[in-house]
Amino acid sequence: MSQRIIVDPITRIEGHLRVEVVVDENNVVKEAYAGSTLWRGIETIVKGRDPRDAGFMTQRICGVCTFSHYKAGIVAVENALGITPPLNALLTRTLMNAALFLHDHIVHFYQLHGLDWADVVSALSADVKKASDEAFKYTPNPYATGADKLLEVQQRLKAFVDKGNLGPFANAYYGHPTYRLTPEQNLIVLSHYLECLRIQRIIAQCMAIFGAKNPHPQSLTVGGVTCVMDLLSPSRMGEYMEKFKEVQDFVNRAYYPDLVMAGKAYANEASVLNDIGVNNLYTFQEFQLGKNEWLFESGIIKNGDISKVYEVEEDKITEEATHSWYKDNEALHPYDGKTNPNYTGLVEGESIDHHGKNVTSKVFDTKGKYSWIKAPRYEGNPMQVGPLANIVVNYAKGNKNVIPVVDEFLKETGLPLNAVFSTLGRTAARCIEAKIVANNALRAFNNLVENLKVDESTCAPYVIDNTKEYKGRYMGHVPRGTLSHWCRIKNGVIENWQAVVPSTWNASPKDANGIGGSYEQCLIGLKIADVKQPLEIIRKIHSYDPCIACAVHVMDTKGNNLSEYKVNVNL
Amino acid sequence: MLDFHHLQTRLNELEKLPSLKNDSSITQALEKSGFTRRDFMKWAGAMTAFLALPASLTPMVAKAAELADRLPVVWLHMAECTGCSESLLRSDTPTIDSLIFDYISLEYHETIMAAAGWQAEENLESAIEKYKNKYILMVEGGIPMGDTEHFLTIGPHGKTGYELSKMASENALAIFAIGTCSSFGGIQAARPNPSNAQPLSKVTSKTVINVPGCPPSEKNIVGNVLHYLLFGELPALDVYNRPKWAYGLRIHDLCERRGHFDAGEFVQSFGDEGAKNGYCLYKVGCKGPYTFNNCSRERFNQHTSWPIQAGHGCIGCSEPNFWDTMGPFEEPMASHKFDTVFGLGADSVSDKIGIGVLTLTGVAIAAHAVIASMKKNEE
């Protein structure tokens, strides 16, 4: 007999995401559906506005990857107008982007994903001395894991638990049978969880030095950057450099060793292995380090065959809405997308609740439409994007920034290369990506300093001709994967705007052929230890670092007034 | 204006409340975490100054914070980008976020909480029931209403954002709309507002304290909670229900580039010589003269910077409907006509005098800018 499990809300992510699975009598997942339950319509709102304002509005798509859509919105307009910003501006953007990557990746690992791997309460029974020794197994210079430090952390946890009110930590899946870390290892992770709260403030400051603030920095402008005073101040430059190094140190001495530790501990845990999800991988060039130098390259891998990497052909990208709450279903290129909302609602159904009982709930209408996220496809196929795609594609292409770090990780964990195609692999690839960014971003910094000696320009001049039509896009790689923004400008204002974002690729619902995105595919075949505590589902979904506000977007190229549509609320 | 007796009475009342947690005062807990009493008093002193209260109140601020662990907090995410939650995570001094995590009982917060799905829904329901009329509600995001109410649903029962925020509001002790979206509708409510997103104040008839900004600084979030603890009542508000202590002055009033404005020295285009010299950004669109917030005093990210320091003008993000009224963001306002949406209450005296003043202010600013600039050019 099959049963349905609903996880809504998926917490510790950005946005509103619901996952439903159907399990058989052995608790093995047979069907999986992922859908977003919020629509905001920012691309609709951008229409008719000054192109120079677009970046500020697209930025508000997401406050977590809080630089990605700002830069994308600005670059899409620059691309349309044919502007190349000065090298100083491009490298400054790289430095801000590096801060974003490190912020997102460390916060994801500890604050968002960490509780899926570490059973914090178990740290209470850790032997502090043993834990301190344990940390040396993964790095010669452990971070914040001396016996005195760990004792302090343990006592702090004890005091917190003894209060009898766990606050945000209440009602979690503590004691779940698939947790694999020892109490000592859990204590190490907890110490780093707390340290990360401090470190994330520092890396956010790195963005703010050139970006004014974080979240939602405010120093990019069409044509360049505005923070020229900060760039010309040795004191400000020094501030970035020193703060960045402090975070780099955390990545190398806490995050990476913890990943190696988790990699070893979970090497035999079935629920995190062998779930490639979608095995078509797609990534795009990012991190300009110098005039003609980039940290990561573009590429496409098809069907998991890493022996061949294809070039990205942007006209092969489409989006469709067969199972999305929009009217027009057909697959269209983003420049020509049609996306009129058509909400058909959830339907009455049954699911297992947290007591293991079948109860009446609202469920997806899986035969019909069930998500605000559309289905992007490349050559008609779903793609997986994100650090995993980025690292594998760049490894396959022989990128010298990437290969040694991957090889070292595999050597230290003893994992085979194909272990990368898994939940563990996604989590590992994110850390590997963070390590590569942490250890290379200051190359951009040094090149910026060199360039400033001979060139102080920060903005390229331009004019917007109201009689001309423009069309342009941004394509790049952001913390959650490959991002593109597509715009048309006419009569001096935005005529249309479309964003095809990482979480849209990964969280895609099924398409006209019944093929789902990577979230859905990676859950098929998963055995759930306890249907009351579907931790494995959350662990897998978190490994993508969902960003659902990003994933939900809409564009109406016909210029219709969307608010006129009457919604069929099927509830 | 300050009533010490009232404060003391309020603190005494708070002290009599049963603690949510069994054995600890905040100071004991702080000591366990390696904070000394002195560190704590320093923090309390800073907060007193920050709230623009006299220094003699420092001991009371400290006492109020000691009692803070008795207040449960429920934080709801509506139609939003999570930027406000991220801002909260950037807490200003090293100790403030541990204060929040350790000493406010954060009962529900989707970005942070460990529970998910049914367990998460249970946390919300039990918090509302267990702490009925005792919890602080903070809401992030606009709320789709009317025909489009179902554009946001949460939980296995598919409750709408409207239903959840209404239920949580009805049982809350105090309600804060965190950020411009829950205060005024925000980006999704900008023209043509395709999801019919509305501010939190449209959901409940109770007083909603608006803490706008995109996002608001973490100090404005934390400071308001403390203000409530101290006085036991809502802080003094402007006509947009923004606390006057944080939103009482214009960005322009304390701007570090104000001297250049007065001297008629302006950045004419981004990247020019004026930009390198830190001239006033008015002519490249700064909305500081029309925007009420404490950014120019407090900045962001532990005082690291703020938009005007980074060479970009203010976009007016703590004003109602700024997305529709203040664009294009890189052009001066003087070329625009003000309408009533911008006017009322946007100036600390305008609630008495009305919108004419602001229009006049706008013209005056433009005139001043032109005159000063002409003088500058003559030199």
Quick synopsis:
The complex is a heterodimer of chains A (571) and B (379). Chain A has 571 residues and is an alpha+beta fold.
Could you walk me through the main structural features you see in this protein, from its secondary elements to its overall organization?
- In chain A, a hairpin with a 2-residue loop joins strand 7 and strand 8.
- The two termini of chain A are 27 Å apart.
- Chain A is an alpha+beta fold.
- Chain A is built from 17 helices and 16 strands.
- The C terminus of chain A is likely disordered.
- Chain A is 39% helix and 15% strand.
- In chain A, helix 6 crosses helix 7, helix 7 packs across helix 8 and helix 11 packs across helix 13.
- Chain B has a 5-stranded parallel β-sheet with strand order 2-1-3-7-9, sandwiched between helices.
- Chain B is globular and about 65 Å long.
- Classes of the chains: A alpha+beta (571), B alpha/beta (379).
- Chains A and B meet through helix 1, helix 4, helix 7, helix 8 and strand 5 of A and helix 5, helix 6, strand 2, helix 7 and strand 5 of B.
Total helical elements of chain B = 18
Unreliable runs of chain B: 20-25, 52-56, 335-360
Largest interface: A-B, 106 and 98 residues
**Order of SSEs of chain B:** HHHHEHHEHEEEEHEHEEHHHHHHHHH
Name the strands of the widest sheet of chain A in spatial order.
Answer: 1-2-3
Main pleated-sheet profile of chain A: 3 strands, antiparallel
Query: What oligomeric state do the depicted chains represent?
Result: heterodimer
Strand content of chain A: 15-25%
Structural key phrases:
heterodimer; A: 571 residues; alpha+beta; 3-stranded antiparallel beta sheet; 15% strand; B: 379 residues; alpha/beta; 5-stranded parallel beta sheet; two-stranded antiparallel sheet; 18 helices; 9 strands; globular; ferredoxin hydrogenase activity (chain A)
